[in-house]
Amino acid sequence: MPVDWSTFWVDILDATGDTLIMVGVSLLASAVIGILLGIILVVTRKGHILENLPLFNVLNAIVNVLRSIPFIILMVAIIPFTRLVVGTSIGTAAAIVPLIVYAGPYIARLVENSLLEIDPGIVEAAEAMGATPWQTIFRILLPEAFSSLILSLTTATIGLVGASAMAGAVGGGGLGDLAIAYGYQRFDTDVMIVTVVLLIILVQGLQSSGNVISRKLRRR
């Protein structure tokens, strides 16, 4: 049955809105989790300012395990947890939970890599001047890595866009759900093309914005 484009654009707008909600909410939550985890993974490693190898080893293992699970499998595996949190396993709200679980460890690794790129001499100089560990973290490490962190969050956001589209495979809503319902199940190539173009525009816009912000915030 051909698509009625006079009404279908409303579905497109609704699906785009659902995708933006999924990505936005999950990004905020996973960024908080990921940044905290990333900082802890850096400062608790051997030889750093808050060395704590047992804590580092536990968190490192947890992050590695969660990052090893493909999103589509993770989404199905934690359905009981998703139902416990939001009361359902279908729809936009339900898709946000696995998106957070998926993106949090991913962002943690990106943050960790950004912070480890900082010259150790800067940290040593801060310690020599009497800076406390918390002052070193918030006045030295994070400001020095801020430009790189913006690019890391941009990469994570684009990953979330792709994962949110994948959530459509299990009724997660958004553009992915629309593409599967019309483009795959009904073999409507036009709908598939429209959703793909919208996702490309969204990703390109995010990447360009992240590049501009990172360039402006780069410390000279």
TrEMBL record:
Residues 16-208 form the ABC transmembrane type-1 domain. Keywords: Cell membrane, Membrane, Transmembrane, Transmembrane helix, Transport. GO terms for cellular component: plasma membrane. Its main location: membrane. It comes from the Bacteria. The chain crosses the membrane at residues 20-43, 55-79, 85-108, 149-171, 191-213. The keyword Transmembrane applies. InterPro entries: AA_ABC_Transporter_Permease, MetI-like, MetI-like_sf. GO terms for biological process: D-methionine transmembrane transport. It is a multi-pass membrane protein. It is found in: Cell membrane. Belongs to the binding-protein-dependent transport system permease family. CysTW subfamily. PANTHER family: ABC TRANSPORTER PERMEASE, TRANSPORTER, PERMEASE PROTEIN, PUTATIVE-RELATED. This is D-methionine transport system permease protein. It comes from Fictibacillus solisalsi. The lineage of its organism: Bacteria, Bacillati, Bacillota, Bacilli, Bacillales.
